[in-house]
């Protein structure tokens, strides 16, 4: 191959410039080549062939004659890179296999084999090595039922995972719990990130499963450790927690900008979703499931929704992790991994907005618990329509003792059809209405622990009567407590109480039969 003719630039070049051109030929002989320099942004490489130097104008040629500082540094980095020697496994040819005849060959082989093993071990220790990968595989790898949505789900999971972190807490040196959380803010000036997680992270006592009793205790002085994605940890600093929604906020110093999640304000029963978390090694946990068609249990908050999964392998076992849809958007935050309940995103967004604006998450305490008619068996819904001409609303499951609702005559079995003039079908809708009303209350300059009036439309099935009731309720950021309607029995009332109890039992049996 003939050497190309030297250009005028080559002829005019000084000796150091020619030496610099030689150095720019990486991993090969020092060949002096005639490679035209040009503006890479203005003239990207053509897919049809090499760049045509004749297309460079005189002005452009004058401008690109000298390499930029960045290009020089890039070239220096390339020239300073030393390629690793290939990993080759040594062996002894068959004709030299007798160690008694060729002892030197075998001694050399032992030395070479030891070096081979040492080099191999260094490479297998890299994070990219197959020997370092998780043996337990996620549902997106081994569940054949997910083939139709696997690619979309994989993109969604990897996008959402960037905002998921792990936290741990301790109290007086003793481990308390492990949780997951989400980045929701990062301040560039102070290098401080804000984390949304579950209040369970600092829950020091949980004596009762019934959330409406209000006996849980929280310690805001608990030591919180934030496990960052690069394997380092940082101290988490308490900002605020809200017991009713099981939410807590912490701030932490983090130098690198974090990625925030996107929320989807709607989530519906039967929807394909994924639950994300991180294990103690910070490895991602992925569980596929669907939003369950359930009313919350009587001991749980009525704004919960539920994650139904079919497989138990590699299940996320921490509270505070997100539930995401196939677009990678957060539709809920797990608040109890045992019952797989989660707080839906429509409520999460309002809670975050209230805390950001007002420094607290206020809520109206109505003094009642509900079930949604929409989540009942259609057979039961049809029966209510047939007997009472009603097929939508919230069924009152319990009324708190001495509450204003009890004083206004609302009882177990009544149906709430409207709140402040708007029809309601689910407890999620009601909870969102309560939060919006609280925002209006604070926007008007009012504070916590105030009393405000709300209007509800109630249908009384026993009387077949529909009426509108004004309730005077409290604005609070504590967990709502429902006090059961009990009273003490005295000796003189024992006989009558026994008779009354028998009548109640008979009535309950009758209800069960219906």
From TrEMBL:
Residues 68-78 have a biased composition (Acidic residues). InterPro entries: PDZ_sf, Peptidase_S1_PA, Peptidase_S1C. It comes from the Eukaryota. Gene3D superfamilies: 2.30.42.10, 2.40.10.120. One of its GO terms (biological process) is proteolysis. GO terms for molecular function: serine-type endopeptidase activity. Residues 1-20 have a biased composition (Basic and acidic residues). Residues 1-92 are annotated as: Disordered. Belongs to the peptidase S1C family. This is PDZ domain-containing protein. It comes from Lolium multiflorum (Italian ryegrass). The lineage of its organism: Eukaryota, Viridiplantae, Streptophyta, Embryophyta, Tracheophyta.
């Amino acid at each position: 191959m003939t050497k190309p003719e030297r250009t005028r630039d080559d002829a005019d070049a000084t000796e150091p410039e020619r030496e610099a051109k030689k150095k720019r030929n990486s991993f090969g002989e020092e060949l002096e080549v005639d490679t035209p320099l040009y503006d890479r942004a203005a003239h990207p490489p053509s897919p049809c062939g090499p760049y045509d130097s004749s297309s460079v104008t005189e002005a452009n040629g004058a401008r690109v004659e000298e390499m930029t500082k960045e290009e020089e540094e890039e070239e220096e980095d390339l020239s300073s890179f030393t390629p690793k020697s290939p990993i080759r496994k040594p062996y002894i040819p068959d004709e030299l296999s007798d160690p008694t005849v060729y002892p030197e060959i075998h001694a050399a082989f032992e030395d070479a084999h030891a070096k081979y093993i040492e080099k191999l071990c260094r490479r297998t220790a890299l994070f990219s090595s197959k020997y370092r990968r998780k043996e337990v595989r996620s549902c997106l790898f081994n569940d054949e039922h997910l083939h139709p949505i696997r690619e979309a789900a994989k993109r969604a999971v990897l996008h959402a995972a960037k905002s998921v972190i792990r936290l741990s807490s301790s109290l007086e040196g003793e481990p308390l719990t492990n949780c997951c959380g989400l980045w929701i803010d990062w301040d560039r000036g102070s290098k401080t990130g804000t984390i949304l997680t579950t209040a369970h992270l600092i829950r020091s006592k949980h004596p009762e499963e019934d959330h409406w009793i209000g006996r849980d205790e929280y310690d805001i002085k608990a030591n919180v450790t934030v496990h960052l994605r690069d394997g380092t940890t940082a101290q988490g600093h308490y900002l605020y927690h809200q017991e009713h929604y099981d939410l807590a906020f912490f701030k932490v110093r983090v130098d690198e900008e974090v990625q925030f999640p996107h929320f989807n304000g709607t989530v519906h029963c039967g929807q394909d979703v994924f639950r994300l978390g991180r294990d103690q090694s910070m490895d991602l946990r992925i569980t596929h499931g669907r939003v369950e068609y359930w009313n919350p249990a009587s001991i749980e908050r009525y704004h919960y929704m539920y994650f139904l999964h079919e497989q138990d392998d590699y299940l996320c076992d921490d509270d505070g992790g997100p539930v995401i849809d196939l677009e990678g958007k957060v539709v809920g935050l797990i608040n109890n991994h045992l019952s797989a309940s989660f707080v839906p995103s429509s409520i999460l967004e309002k809670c975050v907005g209230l805390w950001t604006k007002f420094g607290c998450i206020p809520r109206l305490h109505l003094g009642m618990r509900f079930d949604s008619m929409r989540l009942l068996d259609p057979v039961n819904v049809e029966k209510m329509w047939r007997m009472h001409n009603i097929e939508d609303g919230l069924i009152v499951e319990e009324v708190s003792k001495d509450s204003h609702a009890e004083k206004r005559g609302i009882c177990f079995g009544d149906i709430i059809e409207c709140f402040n003039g708007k029809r309601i079908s689910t407890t999620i809708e009601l909870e969102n209405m309560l939060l919006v009303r609280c925002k209006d209350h604070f926007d008007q300059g009012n504070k916590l622990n105030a009393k405000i009036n709300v209007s509800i439309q109630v249908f009384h099935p026993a009387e077949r009567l529909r009426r509108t009731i004004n309730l005077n309720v409290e604005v609070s950021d504590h967990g709502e407590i429902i006090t059961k309607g009990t009273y003490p029995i005295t000796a003189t009332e024992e006989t009558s109480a026994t008779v009354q109890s028998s009548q109640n039992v008979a009535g309950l049996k009758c209800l069960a039969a219906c």
